Amino acid sequence: MAVFMTAFPHYIPSSNNHAARVHHLCVALRLVNAQLSGRDAASNETMVVVLVLGLYERYHGEYQRGLMHLDGLRRMLDLRGGIRELSTSSPDLARKIFRTDLEYSLNLGTPPRFTLQDVKPVTTPIYHNNLQEHFSPPFHPNLPIPLAIHHLLRAATRTAHLLHTASTSPTFKLSSRAVHDTFILLGYRLQALSPLLALHTIPAAGDEVVGKE
Predict the structure, then answer these.
(1) Distances (CA, A) of 106 to 93, 110, 174, 187, 193
(2) Keywords for this entry (predicted)?
(3) Which pLDDT score, from 0 to 100, does residue 147 have?
(4) Same domain, yes or no, for 57 and 136?
């Protein structure tokens, strides 16, 4: 209910909105705590509620408070055998967890709780097929670009090309799930590379680069 009131504040008079949201949030927290002490502490339903609480805090900019929900979610996943096990049994829920983890990481500038290796098995990006057939991003010939960043930029360019085609062609369609997967995977690839740092450091001897003879 607190999430609904946040998304649709016009349904509740503004003078009562904040107090009502806090009330429903407290009720939700009590129910979650009760659920966590039972046999279904790590059920999909409980994890969804905890995930929504994290999204609620993110919407209100309370990232530090939301991290407590993500930490709790991580412990629940450990009881279920980890995120990779959940990716096999409930891939859609795993995607939502990855997306939330990535959003918190990008907003706080902190490492994500999950890794690119966790994400890859459950995501199929829209640039998955025939990437080699499409152009590479232009680089200044004297600017050394690490090969991993080159590949990431090619994937991002291919993604932009496909999204543009889908928005302008009535016959070209993209799966919403694949688009969602693409942004998750690109985000984790970006986090894994830390490209802004890499571009301001000298490549180590033996690193393969693009654009340098």
Answers:
(1) 20, 7, 26, 9, 13
(2) Nucleus
(3) 78
(4) no
pTM of the model: 0.71
Query: In this structure, are 100 and 187 located in the same domain?
Result: no
User: How many residues are given for the chain?
Assistant: 213
Q: Is the domain of 155 the same as that of 89? A: no
For the purposes of burial, counting CB atoms within 10 Å of the CB of 161, is it exposed (0-12), middle (13-18) or buried (19 or more)?
middle
> How many structural domains comprise the chain?
2
Q: How far apart are CA 191 and CA 213, in angstroms?
A: 28
Question: Would you say residue 81 lies in a domain?
Answer: yes
Kindly list the distances between the CA atom of residue 66 and the CA atoms of 47, 92, 211, in Å, as whole numbers in the listed order.
14, 21, 42
Do 63 and 108 touch, CB atoms closer than 8 A?
yes
